[in-house]
Please model this.
Amino acid sequence: MTKYKDSFESNLNKLEEIVDKLENGEVDLEESVKLYEEGMKLKKICEEKLKSIESQIKKIKHDNNKITKEDFS
Model:
């Protein structure tokens, strides 16, 4: 089974590979179900990582020659 502690990019690449296999019909029905389940897990992990990163992003605001940082909104 796939390990999900990889980087966001690695998990996204794995998800894209799964989608390609499913779209191209490269696998039988049983394997399709397994790949679909794995894809859903990867999708959830990628979404959670994006939410985490989004909360860390700071927006830089330039106002009256002062630079301030605000939380991403």
